[in-house]
Amino acid sequence: MSISKDLSLLSSSPETSKGRLIKESYSQTRSEFQRDRDRILHSAAFRRLKHKTQVFVSHEGDHYRTRLTHSLEVSQIARSICRVFNLDEDLADTLSISHDIGHPPFGHAGEDALSSSMKNYGGFDHNDQAIRIVHLLEKKYFNFDGLNLTWETLEGLVKHNGPIKENIPMTINELNNKFNLQLNKFPSLEAQISSIADDIAYNNHDLDDGLRAGFFTYDELANLPLIGDIIKSFPSEFESFEMQRINNEITRKSTAIMIKDVMNTIDEHVSKLSIKTANDVRLQNQLVADFSPVMKEKVSSIKSFLSSKMYNHDKVKSMTQNAHKIITSLFELFMNTDDKIYSKYLPDYENENHKSRMICDFVAGMTDNFAQTIYNKHIN
User: Could you tell me where the DSSP H helices lie in the chain?
Assistant: First the structure.
């Protein structure tokens, strides 16, 4: 691979940041993006990721990924790519470690359950919940609620999945009205790299976790594009090695190939689209940081395989149904219970009109363990 460009001119610079919604004095020792990263790192929401499952199998073994370990893997990939191009690693790191903090307990099952419970109360969206956390729910400063993050960090979090042109979630819409996040434009190159690093990380570590859980075999993986080529390059007796060695060889090589493809694609797009400034990145009608068309097909095949063999596995479906029951029951408990139980867990309850959203915030912030404990104590 030949990466020819220093893309520092496309980098988001903390020195030229659009600043914070609430003005603060500058730090003498840290850049504005470093301060954002540190605020996320020390937040309660980030700590809780340790006990939130990724694909809802983590409680069955010590080596399955959690939201926390996944976020750290995303950060490592994003920082590595940014370093090659001389982009701002701190911004990419901040976005990577914070992109999942809005997820409720029990993975996607928990989100589906909360979305259903909140359908008559404004709905639930994990991306919007992340903004609620960093903008409203963290209570650490005398002068403001939330973490008062920079415009660039908020923009990257809001647009983790790209521009938002319709069906704008409630909190994101309210924040955008105060701090124009240019929702119809693409985010910074660092934000795009964090997003594609997320894809690289979860596709590869889900293969590892799926193998550990016994959901599929090496023979089945050998039929996949990219993964199959890696396995076919192994010694004929490779299955005599420990699983952790084999899995690491697969995911290490696959991750490296995907990263190489993304870096080549960035290099190609910058040249082809004549991108000269950070603003040029936002004005494109496509992603700058992306997989190549050939790699997209390979990744799509891997995703389809994981959907069939892992996400829709009977064991995962059973856990998903249980998770849905727990979250739905907890929401109903707090909505319908007497004030004694309610006030024990939500002492700040003041306004009946806000009750459903406060309950949603509370349940969404739970770890898997805490949700299960409250369910067992008051419902089961």
Answer: 32-41, 44-48, 67-85, 89-98, 107-117, 126-132, 151-158, 170-178, 189-213, 218-221, 227-232, 243-272, 278-283, 293-306, 314-336, 339-345, 355-365, 368-378
Q: At 298, give phi and psi (nearest 5°).
A: -65, -45
Domain residue ranges in the chain = 29-315
- Give tens-digit pLDDT for 54-91: 775 445 556 678 899 999 999 999 999 999 999 999 99
What phi, psi does 231 have (nearest 5°)? -65, -40
pTM: 0.94
Contacts 24+ apart (CB under 8 A), 220-224: 220/305, 220/309, 221/250, 221/305, 224/301, 224/302, 224/305
- CATH for 29-315, among 1.10.230.10, 3.30.43.10, 1.10.10.10, 1.10.3210.10? 1.10.3210.10
Taking the C-alpha atoms of residue 35 and residue 228, their distance in angstroms, rounded to an integer, is 43
pLDDT 10s per residue in the chain (380 long)? 445 579 999 999 999 999 999 999 999 999 999 999 999 999 999 999 999 987 754 455 566 788 999 999 999 999 999 999 999 999 999 999 999 999 999 988 899 999 999 999 999 999 999 999 999 999 999 999 999 999 999 999 999 999 999 999 999 999 999 999 999 999 999 999 999 999 999 999 999 999 998 999 999 999 999 999 999 999 999 999 999 999 999 999 999 999 999 999 999 999 999 999 999 999 999 999 999 999 999 999 999 999 999 988 888 888 889 999 999 999 999 888 766 676 777 766 555 568 899 999 999 999 999 999 999 998 88
User: Which amino acid is it at 272?
Assistant: K
Rounded Cα–Cα distance for residues 100 and 93 (Å): 13
Tokens read off for 356: 């459903």
The 3-state DSSP class for residue 99 equals coil
Collapsed DSSP state (helix, strand, coil) of residue 150: strand
Q: For the stretch 258-267, what's the b/e string if a residue is b when 16 or more beta carbons lie within 10 angstroms of its beta carbon?
A: bbebbbbbbb
